[in-house]
Amino acid sequence: MAALLDRCAFPPPGTAVDCAVSGGPDSTALLVLAVAAGLDVTAWHVDHGLRPGSADEGLLVARTAGGIGATTMRVEAPIDDGPGLEERARDARRAVLPTGVLTGHTADDQAETVLWNLLRGSGVPGAAGIGEPHRRPLLGLRRAETRGLCEDLGLEVVDDPHNAEARFTRNRIRHEVLPLLADVAGRDPVPLLARHASLAGEAVGLLDALAADLDPTDVASVADVGDDLVRLAVRRWLADHDDGRPPDAASVDRVLDVVRGRAVATEVVGGHRVRRSAGRLSHDRR
Predict the structure, then answer these.
(1) Which pairing describes strands 71-76 and 40-47: parallel, antiparallel, or unpaired?
(2) pLDDT tens per residue, the chain (286 residues)?
(3) CA 149/CA 153 separation, integer angstroms
(4) Domain edges within the chain
(5) Where are the alpha helices (DSSP H) in the chain?
(6) Which residues on neighbouring strands pair with residue 20, listed in sequence order?
(7) Are strands 71-76 and 265-268 parallel, antiparallel or unpaired?
(8) Cα dist. 223→17, 212, 214, 226 in Å?
(9) Gap between the Cα atoms of 194 and 211, Å rounded
(10) What separation in angstroms does the CA of 119 have from each of 10, 125, 248?
(11) Sheet holding 265-268, edge to edge
(12) How many CA atoms are closer than 13 Å to the CA of 146, on its beta-carbon side?
């Protein structure tokens, strides 16, 4: 475990942290490693009620957490299966989880996110992968390592059947695209994509600094600013309203049209609407 901890990015020992724990191997490893790092851990389990017996998964998380000295908070956020399930589940979790909660995303998740964002046309910010990397202390680990840790410790974990369903684009990237890339390249693409995300993140930081003083919601203040910089400011503003998830390029361009007065309102990916009134932009969830 010590070797894994050396590659994690946890805050200093004694820090109180909240961890999102579904009961899967990644989040269970997050819980175990956070406790091993000397943190004061509260495990948050969200039950969407999507499967019979889902409440038992919360009990499993509570047993695991209690066995290693962590506190557990179990909350319900029921949703129905159907179109947009991943996004609706994410929004439901965001509504009930505390600000700054840590998640068990790994390097494999990072690689999948980079590819998914590129397919969405999310530009350089999307190439940086998962938003708010400071909340993802396991990005230096692989998915096989988190599962291996749980197996070595004899911990029972939950395997969500939704993770194998081809109706979800991310699953197809995981099970079809990445293996094909590995075959074509003759090497594991995950470290390459994770490194790409790190470099893109550095570039995003530099670009953000250029646009830091711009407020795209104040139309008059950016009237004389070039479109390229305004796009950066719009992208950041939209991401702030979507849990750090970078918007697609088409959404940014449509919002730029609103800023420039070529449109009075537009829809953006994620079920959001941007409107212009009295020289100001507003952002509403539909």
Answers:
(1) parallel
(2) 899 999 999 999 999 999 999 999 999 999 999 999 999 999 999 988 777 777 788 899 999 999 999 999 999 888 877 777 778 878 888 889 999 999 999 999 999 999 999 998 888 888 999 988 999 999 999 999 999 999 999 999 998 887 888 888 999 999 999 999 999 999 999 999 999 999 999 998 888 888 888 999 999 999 999 998 999 899 888 888 876 677 888 899 999 999 999 999 999 877 789 999 999 999 887 6
(3) 6
(4) 2-102+137-163, 106-130+169-209, 213-285
(5) 2-5, 25-36, 54-67, 85-96, 107-119, 123-127, 143-152, 169-172, 178-185, 189-211, 227-240, 249-259
(6) 44
(7) unpaired
(8) 43, 16, 11, 8
(9) 25
(10) 31, 13, 9
(11) 265-268, 272-277, 280-285
(12) 29
Give which of 233, 229, 235, 227 is closest to 262, Cα–Cα.
Answer: 227
* Beta carbons within 8 Å of 21's beta carbon, 6+ residues apart: 27, 28, 30, 31, 43, 44, 45, 61, 64, 65, 104
Contact yes or no for 35/85 (Cβ under 8 A): no
Tokens standing for 29? 């490893």
CA distances in angstroms from 41 to 55, 65, 83, 280, listed in the order given? 21, 9, 34, 42
Whole-angstrom distance, CA of residue 223 vs CA of residue 226: 8
Cα pseudo-dihedral 276, 214, 91, 12, rounded to 10: -160
In the block, tokens 């940014």 appear at: 252
The class level of CATH for 2-102+137-163 reads: alpha beta
42, 17 Cβ separation under 8 angstroms: yes
What DSSP line would sit under 9-64, residue for residue?
----TT-EEEEE--SSHHHHHHHHHHHHTT-EEEEEEEE---STTHHHHHHHHHHH
Token pair, residue 27, equals 């989040």
- Tokens of residue 169, six digits: 């684009």
